[in-house]
Amino acid sequence: MASNFFDLKKRKEAAAASSSSKQKTALSQAADRPVPWVEKYRPKTLSDVTAQDHTVSVLRRTLQSSNLPHMLFYGPPGTGKTSTILALAKELYGPELMKTRVLELNASDERGISIVREKVKNFAKIAISTATATNASKYPCPPYKIIILDEADSMTQDAQSALRRTMETYSKITRFCLICNYVTRIIDPLASRCSKFRFKPLDEGNARLRLTSIAEAEGVRYQEGVVDALIKVADGDLRKAITFLQSAARLHGAVKERTGDDMEVDSGPKGGEITVRSIEEIAGVIPEKTIDDLMQSMEPRPNGQAVYTPVAKIVQDIVADGWSAAQVLLQLYNRLVFSDMLNGNQKNQIVAIFSEIDKRLVDGADEHLVTLDMSLRIAGVLGDTGS
Amino acid sequence: MLFVDKHRPKTLDSLTYHPDLSSRLKALANGDFPHLLVYGPSGAGKKTRIIATLKELYGPGVEKIKIDSRVFTTTSNRKLEFNIVASVYHLEITPSDVGNYDRVVIQDLLKEVAQTQQVDLAAKQRFKVVVINEADHLSRDAQAALRRTMEKYSPNLRLILLANSTANIIAPIRSRTLLVRVAAPTTDEIVDVLKGVGKIERLEVRDKLCQRIAVESGRNLRRALLMFEAVYAQNEVVKDNTPLPPPDWEALISQIADEIMAEHSPARILQVRAKLYDLLTHCIPPTVILKTLTFKLIPKIDDTIKADVIKWSAFYEHRLHLGNKPIFHLEAFVAKFLRLLETYLMDMDYDF
What is the distance between the alpha carbons of residues A79 and A201, in angstroms, rounded to a whole number? Predict the structure, then answer.
């Protein structure tokens, strides 16, 4: 070692070797590091975006013409709004140029009026950075920057109004993309400056395709019906479905080890597989049995006995078991509104009850009292069938 | 030290009930750990489970905690003092302490934590954990601020949200976390715990007494343990039928219930009001007062008007949340109850 010490060349070599090996391990570590599947399978290009054909085709055309309007993406959570704009930005600029050309602000950043006036305006003002030759050859690199305002519906009205003129003044060198869940929360002057894209909830076929392909790629074992259950509980929200799938896989240890070839074949009960029930448990769905019991208790008793005692008991158990009142409401709703046993008038009354209860829950009223009140009132409606 | 703290299980293995849940948490802690949203009624053991999980994640280091006081400045230059309970590996915050300014805390603090890596290289995990208490009291803004932070900084940061119910958690947060439901222990499980504690403390354990405490506690283990300790502290010899002393405020509320039932007149409302004020000035939450009062009154009245009483109780409880002067709504409930009862009694008279 001592002789090596003065041998500069050798030391350099050794250093290079060790650093390269270090780099390698660091790389492999980064690959090994657990990433949420939602991030891992976030669409990398526009064509990867699932089920938003209309939006994607319009955006693809802008890719070719290299002109982009201001955009407003809206739609329910988990439909790919953020993914689409990030994928588009990547296709336009490539990973390197993206750092200087794209500004992403979301609700985790302070976005009061002062920030819009300073940060956004300053970014909108600065001249466009030049693309290096390599980048320019690979990507379109159009001559404008993009400012992404994610979760724009949580911006204050004032902050939104401050954007108005900024958007117009710098429109030559800057494009805005606003992303929100509720388009009504965006003030009209802003909405009219943007071309709107609606993201619709994912349909079943596309969601299924995506989920099965992810499950395949991760080597997840699952029982029949799990994908259906996922689609049902996620309700068009793909992110939710993927998160649930990953959580369930973690809980059951249902991910195959891909070390040896013979491991793949081995489908013994060692790791366990995802069950439909576990998906429901993760999603907080109440077992059918509990709802059955509750329904049973709400049925009118013979010879005019009050339903209070049985209902109160079951409600107390539901609350103590930690089921959320909103979920009770949802499942009762699905049961009752599509039930053939009730006439139209009864359904009207029941729906009115549901709406009031939902409002109370959102206002933060006590779950126990609210659930009990809801159950008793529904029982009352169920009680007077005739007349 | 109270029994509740003294006998709190420290590891996932020593938790007595919900073995499935414990083994799941253990599997999560040893695999790749997601963001968690833990919900369940109070006294079900949410916090205990989380602390045990943290220990499983990082080892005994998480038990060395210190309290930091930080000052945050809002955009309008108001200074906020905020307490953080922290170990080397995790932080524990209660953002609802600062009311409407919780957004500032979430934005500043979480970003700061998320952008720094774990300092201790020997740590078992590369990420830090932030435990957020009372997550269901977070304002909408604060929850919105969590959304992208949870995704963007997931290599450095895991969140554990603790809540009593998921109703007030916005959907985007729910779709980013693994929901963990902690059900309250059943009465049998509570009895087992009480017996276990009694054995360690070398007390003379009575089966029937434990059973009664378990029922009385309403499946709230914390409350059961406190009652258990109180009974043994107050009586030298404990028998099966030793009375369980209710907390002062509960005694007062049942007194109110008796008074309401005894006489239905405006003068009585005035009397009751004084007692309600008394409760409020002792910082008993108005929701608790209303709820306890309702459930004390219910057994005393006829089955036919129970549904109505619950209806109005729920109605005024909702009002409590919307309004800002609790006494109005509590009084209104009392008046409404008297009215209901009176109408009912009048109808009875007419029937004859």
Answer: 6
- For CA atoms A227, A55, A62, A108, the dihedral sign is negative
Backbone angles phi, psi at B157, to 5 degrees: -145, 135
Task: Dig out the tokens for B163 from the structure.
Answer: 């809540």
Measured CA to CA, the distance from residue B54 to residue B60 in angstroms comes to 9
The one-letter amino acid code at A314 reads I
In total, the C-beta contacts within 8 angstroms joining chain A to chain B are: 172
For chain A, the helix, strand and coil percentages under 3-state DSSP, each to the nearest 5: 60, 5, 30
Residues of chain B found within 8 Å of residue A281, distances taken between Cβ atoms: 181
For chain B, the 3-state helix, strand and coil shares in percent, each to the nearest 5, are: 60, 10, 30
Residue in A closest to B20 by C-alpha: A251
Interface check for A205 against chain B (CB to CB < 8 A): the answer is no
CA B266 vs CA B135, B253, B334: distances in Å: 42, 19, 10
Three-state DSSP class for residue B158: strand
CA B331 – CA B312 distance, rounded (Å) = 12
* A196 vs A58: CA distance, rounded Å: 11
Share of chain A above pLDDT 70, in %: 83
Q: Which residues of chain B register pLDDT less than 70?
A: 119-122, 349-352
Query: Please, are residues B159 and B169 in contact by the beta-carbon 8 Å criterion?
Result: no
Gap between the Cα atoms of B315 and B9, Å rounded: 40
Q: Which residues, 6+ apart, have CB-to-CB distance to A384 below 8 Å? A: none
The pair of three-digit structure tokens given for residue B176, joined into one six-digit string:
């980013």
Q: E strands, chain B, where?
A: 36-39, 66-73, 79-86, 90-93, 128-132, 157-163, 178-181
- Residue A283 pLDDT > 90: no
Helices (H), A260-366: 261-265, 276-283, 288-298, 308-320, 325-337, 344-362
For A52-64, the pLDDT digits (tens) are: 788 888 888 877 7
Tens of pLDDT, residues A286-337: 888 888 888 888 887 776 667 788 888 898 888 888 888 888 898 889 888 8
* Neighbouring residues of B161: CB distance < 8 A, sequence distance ≥ 6: B35, B36, B37, B38, B132, B135, B169, B173, B177
Three-state DSSP class for B305? helix
Q: How far is CA A14 from CA A159, B130, B321, in A?
A: 57, 42, 69
Give the Cα separation of A188 and A183 in Å (integer). 9
Nearest to B4 by CA among B282, B201, B215, B216: B201
Q: Which residue in A77, A250, A370 is closest to B32 by CB distance? A: A250
DSSP single-letter state for residue B1: -
Of B167, B177, B298, the CB nearest to A326: B167
Count Cβ atoms within 10 A of the Cβ of residue A6 and give its class: 0-12 exposed, 13-18 middle, 19 or more buried.
exposed
Between CA A276 and CA A291 the distance in angstroms is: 17
Residues of A in contact with B27 (CB under 8 A): 250-251, 253
Q: What one-character DSSP code corresponds to residue A302?
A: G
Q: Do B148 and A151 touch (CB under 8 A)?
A: yes
Torsion sign across C-alpha atoms A214, A216, A217, A222? positive
The answer, yes or no, to whether ipTM is higher than 0.85 is no
Of A250, A209, A253, nearest to A230 by C-alpha is A209
pTM of the model: 0.77
